[in-house]
Design goal:
By secondary structure, this protein is of the alpha/beta class. It has 3 domains: about 325 residues, ABC transporter transmembrane region fold (Up-down Bundle), CATH 1.20.1560.10; about 180 residues, P-loop containing nucleotide triphosphate hydrolases (Rossmann fold); about 70 residues, P-loop containing nucleotide triphosphate hydrolases (Rossmann fold). It has 18 helices and 10 strands. The longest helix is centred in the middle third of the chain and has 54 residues. The radius of gyration is 35 Å and the shape is elongated.
Length: about 600
Amino acid sequence: MRRYASSRPVAASSPADSHFWPTLHKLLPYLWQYKWRVLLALTCLFAAKAANVAVPLVFKDMIDSLTGEQQRLALPVLLLVLYGLLRFSTSLFTELREVLFARVTQRAVRRLALEVFRHLHELSLRFHLQRQTGGVSRDIERGTRSISTLISFTLYSILPTLVEIGLVLSILLVKYDHSFALITLLSLAAYVVFTVKVSDWRIAIRRQVNESDSAANTRSVDALLNYETVKYFNNEAYEARRYDEQLGKWEDAATKSQLSLSWLNLGQQLIIAGGVTAMMWRAASGVVDGRMTLGDLVLVNAFLIQLYMPLNFLGVVYREIRQSMTDIERMFDLLAVNREVADAPNAIARPDGPVDIRFAAVDFSYEVNRQILHGVDFTIPAGQTVAVVGESGSGKSTLARLLYRFYDVTGGEIRLNGIDVRQLTQTSLRAAIGIVPQDTVLFNDTIYYNIEYGRPGASREEIIAAAEAAQLLAFIDLLPDGYRTMVGERGLKLSGGEKQRVAIARALLKNPAVLIFDEATSALDSKTEQAIQASLDNAARGRTTLVIAHRLSTIVNADQILVMDGGRIVERGSHAQLLETAGIYAQMWALQQREESTAEPASG
């Protein structure tokens, strides 16, 4: 069963549904790439903890030697030197751990972020039409940031903290009354149980914060991307209200999260205070009774301080890990989304050379109850041009999407040189096809970059030649920054015609075996269209070309014209043949001729 990511927030799951271990299992291969760095970092970390635990023991002996009846000067000096070395060793091994593990953490974050990025580009067009860009980008941002937190806290914070606690408990159990170890163990158990229970309760609150944050970000991005539409309808206040409505939900959830955190911290400190008081009472009683020395009292106090920090840190670690798991969960959900359109296990690369295309009884539906194409059957011989016309919604643009394998057909086949496109690798298939879409979207970069995108690495001369073929040179020469002119978000700084000419130049630079013009000149005026049409005709010469047309005057020279209606081919033939038939095409031609003849005097 295919699985698609929903654009709606994921409902909060119960703590029992935690994906901690599966997620950790997924991270391990990324870490094991640097297994020797990991092992050395862990060794340094354990050495740092051992040195840290040894410091109070040396300090106890030093105090006892100073309070004895026969003081020897050499002994405290040696102990002081050892004390200083242990202190330095703790910092030294800690920093060595950071140096060794830094590359591991950052490389794991990099690889996972890249994997999600690539996976999103491999998902079908259906997913990208359903997704909300702002929410997805925020999920990825939080997820990659949380990977570093999860790796750091899980692999070299929790385990060493538990080792240090274990060492302290062992020393207390061997050297002193069992009550010391018992009080410490009970305090630790109470602290851990309280922290886990309250943190689990806070997970649902944290999810609400994240969902509200993503929803608010989605609304803001959506409104900014549609800036002109907002202005056209004077809806700035309306968009601000919608954004503030979502921010209000985020504010309530964030406030509740902060209050619950305060209650958690207060409870933790109460448990720690109780444990510290009980321990100091037992130690003070031992000194008064003569069972313990002043050095023992100092040792117990030092251990209490050292235990206090790990205990407090353990609570922070647990909260951060659970919050990181909440943040990272959606990013891993993105990785789990089914690709829908994937290469077959035995897929082959498209053979080089001219391409002929065959749509063989193709059926297609975006949804089960909404069929778009019904038994579409036609051939585009290598080097010839086939045009498709029809009313909006007749299925014309769907043909281009199926040829590109943005979707797979639900019936029939599409063949290139006799090979089903599903048996070809998508990379080789798409490398052979160049398209000029109806709705041209450009990157927020320079004109030069957007043309070069057709074939990254092309020479400047080739890029200028493509721009010239698309009738762009005169426009670029008028710009102060020329090719370095920024086009803005989605190309909004350019007019519709200018964007389409950039798209034409980009497709020409790619120099593909197959060209698709999806109403490529629909945003151009008649004069510019006539100038570019010659370039398009020249570009199509010798290539297999599919033209999806709105203006019939641009396809009169096509080798074959297909007329679609309701997802079916209802007429086919050359321009002259279809006019003789006096069918749908002839009616469309007559209507456009009247419209053009009416528009010309009006424009004059």
